[in-house]
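I'll show a sample.
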Amino acid sequence: MNAILISCCLVLVVIAAIVTVRALKQEERKLKRYESQTFPHKDAIRRSKHYEENSVSTMLPIQIWSYVAGFIVIALLITLFALFY
């Protein structure tokens, strides 16, 4: 049973690492695209304002769901460990 719990935890950590790396790569591509192009100051201000207005409404639900899913998996693993150990 310990091997199953450890392997489940490792899979969870690997999935979290993959998702984090994908998000970082996406942001790096976006940053390189912004650096390679020349934007007038008005476009930069508009893009910044758009990001500030929409980042919370788009990113917060994703973060909430990821934390809820992680909490459920961890609670399930702790319950299984308590029952079978």
In short: The chain has a mean pLDDT of 81. The radius of gyration is 20 Å. Helices lie at 2-36, 41-84.
